[in-house]
Hints:
Blueprint: H1 2-26, H2 40-47, H3 53-57, H4 61-66, H5 77-112
Amino acid sequence: MLAWTAGCSASAASRARDEAVARAARLGHPEIEYREIWSPGTALALGLLPFGGGGFYVRDKYLAASGFLWPFSMIWVPPKAHAEAIELNDRDFELRLMGALEHHEAPAESENE
């Protein structure tokens, strides 16, 4: 079971990385790379631990609090922590990409004024 979830974790993270790189290239900023700040695999593994380790890792206080229902929380905390880690990495990428786009467009707007 653990090997299967680790394989799914690597697949989802790889897919997110590939989509992000393609999106950056389409928008003209291939230098903006997808960084995995929060590891989905680590979030998944910590979600199996008691007391909400996965929730604390991805900074979700509600997910961390639900970890106190361990061992029952092993049903929902690992996949939610995994998904949240991917979402946090995506948000970080989007913020950096939007910052690059705003920085790139700002001089063009000031030249027209």
